[in-house]
Amino acid sequence: MGDDEAAGRRQRVRARMQRLYPLCRSITGDGVRATLDVLEEDLPPGVAMQRHEVPSGTRVHDWVVNDEWNARAAWIADATGRRLVDLARHTLHLVGYSVPVRASMSFEELRPHLHTMPDRPDWIPYRTTYYERTWGFCLAHRDLAVLEEAARLGPLEVVVDTTVGPGSLTYAEVVLPGDEPGEILLTAHLCHPSLANDNLSGLSVATELVRELAGRPRRLGVRLLLAPGTIGSITWLARNGEHLPQVRHGLVLTGLGGPGPLVYKRTRRADRPVDRAAELVVRAHGGQVRDYSPYGYDERQFNALGFDLPVGRISRTPHGEYPEYHTSADDLAFVTDDQLAASYDAVLEVVEALQADVTYRNLSPYGEPQLGRRGLYPTTGGKNATDAVMAMLWLLAASDGATSLVEVAALAGVPVAVLHSAARDLESAGLLAREQAPVDAHQYWSSSARAACAAQRPS
Amino acid sequence: MGDDEAAGRRQRVRARMQRLYPLCRSITGDGVRATLDVLEEDLPPGVAMQRHEVPSGTRVHDWVVNDEWNARAAWIADATGRRLVDLARHTLHLVGYSVPVRASMSFEELRPHLHTMPDRPDWIPYRTTYYERTWGFCLAHRDLAVLEEAARLGPLEVVVDTTVGPGSLTYAEVVLPGDEPGEILLTAHLCHPSLANDNLSGLSVATELVRELAGRPRRLGVRLLLAPGTIGSITWLARNGEHLPQVRHGLVLTGLGGPGPLVYKRTRRADRPVDRAAELVVRAHGGQVRDYSPYGYDERQFNALGFDLPVGRISRTPHGEYPEYHTSADDLAFVTDDQLAASYDAVLEVVEALQADVTYRNLSPYGEPQLGRRGLYPTTGGKNATDAVMAMLWLLAASDGATSLVEVAALAGVPVAVLHSAARDLESAGLLAREQAPVDAHQYWSSSARAACAAQRPS
Amino acid sequence: MGDDEAAGRRQRVRARMQRLYPLCRSITGDGVRATLDVLEEDLPPGVAMQRHEVPSGTRVHDWVVNDEWNARAAWIADATGRRLVDLARHTLHLVGYSVPVRASMSFEELRPHLHTMPDRPDWIPYRTTYYERTWGFCLAHRDLAVLEEAARLGPLEVVVDTTVGPGSLTYAEVVLPGDEPGEILLTAHLCHPSLANDNLSGLSVATELVRELAGRPRRLGVRLLLAPGTIGSITWLARNGEHLPQVRHGLVLTGLGGPGPLVYKRTRRADRPVDRAAELVVRAHGGQVRDYSPYGYDERQFNALGFDLPVGRISRTPHGEYPEYHTSADDLAFVTDDQLAASYDAVLEVVEALQADVTYRNLSPYGEPQLGRRGLYPTTGGKNATDAVMAMLWLLAASDGATSLVEVAALAGVPVAVLHSAARDLESAGLLAREQAPVDAHQYWSSSARAACAAQRPS
């Protein structure tokens, strides 16, 4: 049944991506709304998607919400009416936010509006023009010659049937409440058109995580934010200022189905609980950990000095480091079910580690308590301690009321799940009590814990 | 004469182990008392051993002192009365704390009470049953067949002639007073029967250290604690609560004669003076340093959160990492005189480094004082500084009233003994004064000092 | 023209060394004054050299200013009057501070006053006797035999025509004022006679730096101190106690023309701004960084506990690590124009990094400000950020009012000069403001910044 569950998950993750792939998305417009429709269908019963429409022109901190953009059609046709480049064939053909055009023009007139990749002559690049009112087409470099040839028959017909004007920016949230104040923010951008790894993988895996987490006990709430990149996260941040202190941990999810090992990008401060939890999990999965950089996805907004939110990022080979990035080669074949499934597993483990990451105090700190008397220890003295016993001994040794469970896991080299279970046993035996003080984002993380964490690589 | 001294030491260390080896020891009983008799004989004149008998049933923190156990005899004989397994032949044959039995039984009835090591068919394992009232025998796996064969002649006679009942737990202390408040605790467990490395090596080397230290000047006192593992140290801790703040540094000594390099196990906090001193010495001896773990010997009691004592551990290849551990193969041939002697040297160096580990203040801090005028510097300018000059320069550069001599040693890469001698010269010249503030356990240890310390490996 | 400038610099650096090489220098005397005459000639118009003469016998902290020493002549001649060893031929022949002698003596009588290097028979060693009233000659070991042979003709004539008596110690300063309080101290010792790398390279490169810096804008002042080693810096420190808080950063310059990569020696505290700036620059030049040690040049005086000044040292292969050190083989051929020029470049970069090392506060910290709207960002979304954009993003991400520009450079892996330019653009756009609080010497330098700094090695 576990296998069946996993198979069902794989199928759903891929099916959603297949449905999302052809939609013409940008940072605003009906493509975004249609994308949310698809995702909403897969939410479990009783879990609602809240959608928000923010009017164009709204000030959001240093930015202003863009005019809404919608594309009905766009093509370049030859004198015979044959469409040589057509948005209907691939959403990347039209530069995002292109303004309307309807004109006949020579190849030379058209050329400045054409974007290709000479070094990858079969791939269509991805281009946008959010802040300059212009238009353009993207195409495979080898098709330039076709256009040029076609232009010999007569002027080319260029049609960009788009609208750019007052409307709104759309984003959505799915909230799973928790037993305690505070929440874990998961977020994926939804503004890219037919690009599978960047960003359909994030949208589909995040939806699957919500399905799973909705059925599990949750100490902290979980909030999924689906919004366009940059302007979307800034809009959400601007509209949720009072809520931000509730965001205890966060992860940007993107690029989860492409090649390469998992890569965790630290928060700006690098010492937040999410950094510890993600580092332990990602290293255990054979992945890598990198320091923060202000270039990337929406982690750069959440970590900005004024917000200072503890939001890291999980991806595989990051943006700009694989040639298919922001090209038509980032298609449905580029992402594999195995990579998507392993990403799902890792993110789920990080979330569960954060749910378990409370701080305990040892109630019997004068020497090791007699575990045997409480039925917690093998009675015949043998050679070595079991994992479960080691988990208990570490919890008793390190639970000083300031060291959290994930920190103990890093020190002990014991998986968080094993420690979590041992902590419940010790709590039941009256040997450990939850420390009620809130976990401070800057709490102690000893250098030995860091080193231990860094050493949790698979052998 | 130095060679003669060393030879005498080697001889005494081995002779004590030979006398201790056949005694049937456990965590209580006459074996413990006989062990102390042997060790007491070798104390120098004027140095007393204080023995303590703590009644069974006494509460000691979370534990209760066990009933006393004594074994007069134990054997398994065949129908002809031939003793096939006999405590008189090896103390490991009887499971520690076995309750009395006198019965005839078939091999099948007896089998659940027999412990062997199938993967090491010639070795007898070491087993105990302190907290479950049962009994058992340990034997070489190849001897199982002998028993089974013998049982065909008729039922086997099983005799366990032991007593378990109210009595007392025995431990002993040897105290060498110091010139100042505070003491260095050395401790070894004495509860294991015929196991040479674990624990006779610790008992015999520790006794030799007391012999040597008794004749040396001592800034701090030295306390040797000889007690059964776990329950013994917890009992001592429970009975000495008010004394504990006097324990400034501590070392658990065990496994000193087996194979492998020296291994220092850090205190839980890892930044105590004993950690610095032991790290410098052990690395200079080609040894290794490991982080704390709550599994091991009595360091786990001393370092427990409620006591938080700065007690590290010096051993060679630690428990559980060599196949002979807790088997009859840990015999007198397993420990070598060379390893025992080198362990003795290293522990003595650590103790002396701690004795020298005071904090100085440079009394002439405005530039380098003119050493030449005071006869402390070569007068003709040459190429390089001598070790003695470097020791003085480092002491003057680093003696800010907060950095201790061992910290300076780590920074300077100069042996503690050379610095100690240079410090006396500078004190005599009025350039350095002892800082009277007590050394705080959490005092500054710069990362460069740590790195320097870690780098003091033999080339 | 840049090439012409560089060629002119190389010529001047060498020409000064050629003029300084034959002068007979020591820690006091006319050789020092003649040296300053040469250097003063090359100062640019309007930049003055201030000379100080401090009377012999003046107390300077733990030291007393030496009697002044001058050498008119010194030789050893054979019975025919032929001078076999002659100060006129090489300044190293006479032991510095030799007292006057005029005597005839046998080779055996003379021998204790002769210093040679048996393992380098062609080289003359460098020796001084500042604090013992004696005399001596240094010569090539192979010339000992010549002297011995010559002595068979009759007694050798020994003449040391020197004066040692009340006079003064000479040092000089060149001050370039800055726009703000605080200054960068550059210092080189000037007490060594004909030794090119140690110390003529420092004197000549430092003079060239002053020429260049005099024509540049200067946030902080620059002070060049030219003084004899040890007693000179201690004298300056003693006479400038109230000024010392103005010394915000400092560099001892020496050994800049010999072989080997650049070597930066950290300040005693190792976490000063000059440590960060020099580490970044020196590593980018393929150089090395070492921890402080109290042996070396005048950094040991500036870093002494009572002064605690943030003064590091830049050299190439340090004193005592190359065989030519303190011998006649440290001659003008030993130092190369390329090494001198590269040293000049690196020190200038460190000084300019320190001039730029101010702390900014991001004035638009709520998410990334919209750089495109301000003309600071490429308008068509493409693949990767340019260096200039990354510099802006890093400044915005890290300018929390406590992290300085050099710290940002270490985090970002972006050259200080690029960040400095980006900071001006952001300041002009109203996005960044200088934080007026003074930079504290012990301000935050995160371990990730340190690690990033350490990683800035050329690939």
From TrEMBL, chains A, B, C:
Cofactor section = Zn(2+)
Where does the chain bind Zn(2+)?
A: 192, 198, 326
Q: How is the cofactor bound?
A: Binds 1 zinc ion per subunit.
Q: Where is the DUF4910 domain?
A: 17-356
Domain DUF2172 as annotated: residue spans:
68-162
A Pfam family it matches: DUF4910
All copies of the UCP01524 winged helix-turn-helix domain together span 359-433
Say which domain of life the source belongs to: Bacteria
Which InterPro entries does this entry report, sorted A to Z? DUF2172 (IPR032610), DUF4910 (IPR032589), UCP015244 (IPR012353), UCP01524_HTH (IPR032622), WH-like_DNA-bd_sf (IPR036388)
Give an example GO molecular function: metal ion binding
| Keywords for the protein's UniProt record, in alphabetical order | Aminopeptidase, Hydrolase, Metal-binding, Protease, Zinc
Q: What is this protein called?
A: Aminopeptidase-like protein
